[in-house]
Amino acid sequence: MKCTRWREIALKNLNDQSEIELARQNFIKTGEIDKCVPEDIAASWKKSAEFGVDASSKVLPGKLNRDVLTNVIMQLNTRDSYFYDAEAEMLDYLGAAIVFVDDHLDVFAIRGSRELKDELRAKNFRFGSNLAESRVGTNALALAFESGQDRWVYGSEHYLDALKDYVCVATCPQISKPDRVGIVFPCMIIVPKERFFEGMDAIFSYILKTHMYRQNSILNSNYLMYNAVINFFIAQSGMCYIAIDNSNTIIDVSDNVLTCQNIKLNQIIGLKLGDFSPSLAEVAEKDANADAPTQVHRVMLKVGPYYVKKKDVLSAGETIGSVMFLSRDPNLLAQKLKSLDHLTDTDVPDRRTTSAKSSAYVAKYNFSNLVGFSKAFTTAVYKAQRVAQSSSSVLILGESGTGKELFAQSIHNASDRRGRPFVSLNCAAMPRELIDSELFGYVEGAFTGARKSGSPGKIELADGGTLFLDEIGDMPLDLQVHLLKVLEDRQVTRLGDTKPRKVDVRIIVATNQNLQSLVEQGKFRLDLYYRINVFTIRLPALRDRKEDIPDLAYCFLSQCSKAMGKNVTYISQNVLQAFKAYDWPGNLRELRNAVEYGVNLAAAQKITINDIPDNIAWLAQDTDDEPDEPEISDEGIFGAAMSEADTETRQIIELLDKYKGNKSKVANELGMSRPALYRRLKKLNIDVD
Fold first, then answer.
1. Which of 73, 65, 51, 35 is nearest to 129 (CA)?
2. Does the pLDDT value for residue 423 go beyond 70?
3. 255: nearest Cα among 541, 550, 544, 571
4. Does any domain span residue 688?
């Protein structure tokens, strides 16, 4: 950075402040410049006076520009916020802060020391303040913006009384290259002069240099990489992505990667791909050395198997990096990326595949459609993914509305039977006199009203694929005998017929009842129980996975808004709070209904507390919903995440105090497990020992 001269001047003025202050006061009174005043400062003082700036003001003059956020939020790459977090932490330790402004010198964020930010706020130095020389007189940002060079302004060199107790250094490189996209935002570090010490100048210079380097990087390949990913995922869903540069350094990941791996953005950005996942690095290396088009690869990650396809990103005909798209299902990957290279691994048809796609017996859902990252839920998903590769019978246990059929369809689509029939039958919904003919089929004359040609049953229709029997506990005892025989002999005999027909069917059953209890009561056959209970998957009730509720709610919101042709895209915090407080006896089905109810009533783009059912709405805390024009933090676009963490910290501390440190009770009230609470305490740096 070209700041040597100005740094020397600043350090020299450590001992010359009284002389500079006298010179400033003399200029204000007489308009004359003393010889001790640097030339650029003297010139700025003169312009400040010509602009009519009141040098005696103890606060920054001028009305706050509340529109500054919308001016810059589309331009600043907020995916780099992890870097700014680390930067702010260092400045907080030094008692300093960094100020970000747009190209009009309107402040849109201040990060760093909370004490200093409060002090500046009292002087009207805050979000929306304008630091132009014509408004607040001599300051480092105004000088840097005008000259395109880095500038220091020390103490009384500031024209305004409100700023004379601070040391500031600012940078604003001039960007004139035509191939650049966007804007480099000027920034300034400010620190009380009594906190300034020799050596701090080098620290500040390093911070600003690093900051500008990152912004320049974003404006080149990284900016284009981010755009390629974001634009693609506007139209796509159900997958994860990891973006790497040409040196295999991770420069961006999707949020679901962070959630799934339980890591923060700053723990992964900048890592070599091999340090994050050797399997993914191996895929990247294979594709880099391959002559053929990129293929789909199967890799084993910590959370289970994934399918991966790597797509190079080009700029001006040159590769500037790659995006690795991941999905648990290769078929979904092929579907979503069909606009890219042909996926040869999924283009080969299964010779045993029937015409399931032209029939009604198609499984629509895959594991990528399952939403949730709670421990209980991910355990169930992991078990389902593992058993999908076998032909074992599966018993899915869970309350009504927990998604048992979604799991059954996902297992089918992840197995070697995908593409073949998936046939389901709800044993509780079918009348007793019809269930046997529906399940086993019938021949002509089997009963009054039978079709002349007869009809195959669900078991026959599922031949080569999967038969899903929901609510198996409601199946009549006499039919349980016939089903058991089918499972043992792999043959089915239609009603009214004597000729058995061979079938190749995988059985997945589900129930919300306790089958062992039904066996003890004589309502369910023990031999059938053991036949179907080869591999059991227990699905958690929604009340036991409340940390997944926001993701589920937004998933349902997207579905309902699209189905109704409405543009409802947000759910207020009060609504999410009420959702988390509610017990959801109807589980996912009830949550979807509540969201659909809200979409119907929402008058704007957001579902508010007044738009959801009364039996849920009353559970929200007795606070006003978000105002239409909220007070914006001085941290600007960074403030939302900080305020959310602060709110959560206060809530947990209050509960710990309420329950006298009993973490089990705190976890229960927060709707999370005890281990999850410990992780949250660690994340928020709450010491309870």
1. 65
2. yes
3. 550
4. no
Residues in the chain: 689
In the DSSP assignment, the letter for residue 385 is: H
* C-beta atoms surrounding 140 within 10 Å: 30
Show which of 540, 573, 598 is a domain's final residue.
540
pLDDT in tens, 381-407: 899 999 998 889 999 999 999 999 999
Reported confidence tier of residue 208, pLDDT bands at 50, 70, 90: confident
534 shares its domain with 590: no
Residues 28 and 55 sit within 8 Å (Cβ to Cβ): yes
**SS3 assignment, position 524:** coil
Residue 349 is given by DSSP the state P
Q: Is 194 in the same domain as 241? A: no
Which residue is it, tokens 């996912």? Answer: 588
Q: Average of pLDDT values for 367-381?
A: 84
Residue 495: DSSP 8-state: B
Q: 59: exposed, middle or buried (C-beta count within 10 Å: 0-12, 13-18, 19+)?
A: middle
pLDDT in tens, 257-286: 776 677 766 567 677 888 888 888 888 887
- DSSP state, 446? S
> What 3 state SS string does 14-25 have?
CCCHHHHHHHHH
User: How many other C-beta atoms can be found within 10 angstroms of the C-beta atom of residue 49?
Assistant: 15
Instruction: Give how many domains the chain has, as a whole number.
Output: 4
Q: Is 322 strand, coil or helix?
A: strand
Measured between alpha carbons, how far is 487 from 191 in angstroms, rounded to an integer?
77
Phi-psi region of 128 (alpha: psi -120 to 50; beta: other; left: phi over 0): left
Distance separating alpha carbons of residues 101 and 91, to the nearest angstrom: 17
Token representation of residue 406 = 């979604």
Strand 151-154 with 107-112, pairing = unpaired
Note whether 548 and 372 are within 8 A (CB): yes
The neighbour count for residue 407, using CB atoms within 10 Å, is 26
Task: Say what the pTM is.
Answer: 0.45
Cβ neighbours for 426, distance < 8 A, ≥ 6 positions apart: 470, 471
Place of tokens 């509340």: 66
408 Cβ contact list (under 8 Å, min separation 6): 363, 394, 396, 422, 424, 466, 468, 508, 510
Q: Is 506 found in the same domain as 370?
A: yes
Task: Judge if 484 and 590 occupy the same domain.
Answer: no
Q: Which residue, chain included where needed, has tokens 């269930």?
A: 435
Q: How far apart are CA 596 and CA 547, in angstroms?
A: 20
Query: Which of 540, 556, 582 is the C-terminal boundary of a domain?
Result: 540
Tokens 């799934």 -> residue:
260
Residue 551 corresponds to which amino acid? D
Contact status, residue 423 vs residue 467, Cβ threshold 8 Å: yes
Task: State both tokens at 649.
Answer: 């910290």
| Closest CA relative to residue 139, chosen from 162, 114, 118, 110 | 162
Measured on CA atoms in the order 37, 39, 45, 46, is the torsion positive or negative? Answer: positive
- Report H helices in 293-398: 330-336, 344-347, 375-388
Q: Name residues whose C-beta falls within 8 Å of residue 578's C-beta, 6 or more positions apart in sequence.
A: 609, 612, 616, 617, 618, 619, 620
> 404 with 540: CB under 8 angstroms?
no
Pairing of strands 394-397, 535-538: parallel
Determine, yes or no, domain membership for 231.
no
